[in-house]
């Protein structure tokens, strides 16, 4: 089997971190590009269409989060085995976690499709956008198995240090999505326009292409993994271990997604204009934190590989580099977003000055706190790489449910800020969460070392299963 990348457990730590993180950041930008391209074309339909897509986003994010936790497990287990150069276990773990992810996706797709109207009703979606929102998210729900499959493919590739091929696939998929969006939204010739549902159909179509290409790469074995159809035969013992490692990450990501749903509900209580404002602003901020997410994922992989190679000191040093790099990087990104807030908002929303003005204010208020998000994400990434997904989960739950939601509710309902209290809650919660993460990480050196040791030694068990 060809080596997918130069060894990431040797040489400059900063170079290894950036070598892995930069393609991940670009790939995540392209993934977010799906929503941004949708927002661009849907924005031409008016504020109601924008709001219909906005309310569907946190629900879909929640469902994707439930499955993404298991992709974290797949990435960490693969990286640990790859760091130890146990290639048989690498392939075994990859096949089994892919089976686990696909099975979960099929169940969620069926349940979510039929529960779609109920979900929209629970978050208080108004009658003026209910039909469009339901049509949009039902199409996305049908594509969940494709979406989950490609997420797992990217995670497995990341585990072996191969991040370029997923990037290339994302470039191709985004280009196709940009062409299909106007075709399916507005129609052309014999093809009837579907409105906001057309945007979802374009996204699902490109997800199908991405998943097929990813599966071909893994079956051909030219990028660090070599799967066989025989390898997909379920291994119950291994799946149980992957479930125990991935479940806290699923709760972690789901808690964050549910927090977005709660924030959407609070925004919806102030009317469609504020809801559309939140939809545009939150997406731009989500775009801004992508560098932090990329560094966090790279940190997880490097920590896991170094622990697999029995280099815990290098794993801890990697975490320190990730924290500093993410803080400084997001500080610059936040400044850029602050300065470019108006043209960015106007690019994705045409002809509604009230929503534009409010969205610019929201983005400028929250942009300065992005650097704090980078700190928390890097600490969480180090924890996941060490197998301590439970601690990473607790950090997210505290930052979202103990900090942001109560602060947002209080500031928007019990102060003169009104709906602007929702915007200021991002600043307060991000700063407090970063302090909490740093206090945890910067305890005595021995405590920090203990925290970065894997919660369980799964590597020997994985090797035994593969054998």
UniProtKB/TrEMBL annotation:
Pfam family, one: MatE
UniProt key word Transit peptide: no
Gene Ontology BP term (one): monoatomic ion transport
Membrane spanning residue stretches: 12-30, 50-78, 98-123, 135-153, 165-188, 194-219, 257-278, 284-309, 321-342, 362-383, 390-411, 423-442
GO cellular component: plasma membrane
Primary site of residence: membrane
GO MF assignments: antiporter activity; xenobiotic transmembrane transporter activity
Compartmental location: Cell membrane
Membrane topology term: Multi-pass membrane protein
Superkingdom classification of source: Bacteria
Alphabetical UniProt keywords: Antiport, Cell membrane, Ion transport, Membrane, Transmembrane, Transmembrane helix, Transport
Record has GTP-binding as a keyword: no
Protein's UniProt name: Multidrug-efflux transporter
Organism listed in the record: Hymenobacter rigui
